[in-house]
Amino acid sequence: MLVKLFIIFVICLSYSATLYATSSTCGKSYQLTTIANNSIALDGLAEDPAWAKANIISDFSLPWKESQAQKTRFMALIDDSHLYFHFSSTDSSVALKKHWQGEETVVLEDRVEIFFSKDLTLNSYFALEIDAAGRVLDYHSTFYRQFDPQWHFTELLLSAVNTVNGYSIEGSISLKSLALLSIPPFNALQPVYVGLFRADLKNTPEKQRAEWISWINPDTAMPDFHVASAFGCFFLAAH
């Protein structure tokens, strides 16, 4: 009996230590809801009934500016084979280039961004920047800002829709492809580090400028999403 109690104590202590470690490294956390396979049909609108189960992130801000950010909403779901995500962006004037000149065109446009990293060293992380038409700039990077634009996500699907108030992006990434990048499986105890961002471009008489919107305030002097403090933690929600 004493041995069993000791084992339970050790397990509880280990679980508590894990929770403390993750809470001390996560600026914010997100709980991923599991859904049945084939519940999502990508159309950019995220209107499948399964999306009603998703937790919503809406507390995006402008960390480097004392003003109200245009609204951004994010949610995600997971099944046995894919991670699904949806961005809804309120935008009074969507910046979208008519002439596509390769994926670098995205840096001149309004866009939403999602980064994945296996840890907070950022020795290897992967970025998606998606414009309002669902066109992508994706790359692998190492700290600090050592980008490889020749790298691309595999098994990525996207759908984009212009809305009355802005634009909507719905996408999926296969879990198998994330595993090949050494991104750990989503689970209830250990986090997957994810950054959620948005570039909101504004035209002024002088030039085009960007307002940098983030889920988490990285607490840097200048706008910068490529630092560990810009990443939050994704966990698998308990059933």
Automatic annotation (TrEMBL):
Pfam annotation, one family: CBM9_1
Positions of the Carbohydrate-binding domain: 43-236
Region forming the signal peptide: 1-21
Gene Ontology terms describing biological process: carbohydrate catabolic process
SUPFAM superfamilies from the UniProt entry: CBD9-like
Gene3D superfamilies: 2.60.40.1190
One function term, GO molecular function aspect: carbohydrate binding
Keyword field: Signal
Highest taxon of the lineage: Bacteria
Protein name: Carbohydrate-binding domain-containing protein
Organism whose genome encodes this protein: Colwellia psychrerythraea (Vibrio psychroerythus)
